Amino acid sequence: MGKDIGIHGNMFGGILMAWIDEAAAAFATEYCHTPNMITLKVGELLFKKPIKTGNHIRLYGEVAHLGNTSITLNIEVRKYNVYSGEEMVVCTTSITFVRIDDDGNPTGIGESIRAKHERLISEGNAAIN
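The structure corresponding to this sequence follows.
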């Protein structure tokens, strides 16, 4: 949208950062079966290519690490060409979320989630798009 584009015709990096955080949070809450996930840390955002008005983008996530109370995801943003189906990586980062209780304190990720994670890792299926 026009409001998301800067003077050089590129998407604002901060807007893309917000989209990444929102999409990654949705992935983390689904993966860990809890809505109680908060962003702890965003790694280096590497903007490799500009995003222009009219570009379609896709966000891909993969579990990099599942800790006792946290999950770290590797995120890749790609421009998608609707005519050719080609994708080009435009941004990469990692993001860590922590599961919290009702008082905002870190709380453990359930054992059933950890077992599922180990199974997915052994099957090579810890990524979604």
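The longest strand covers residues 87-99.
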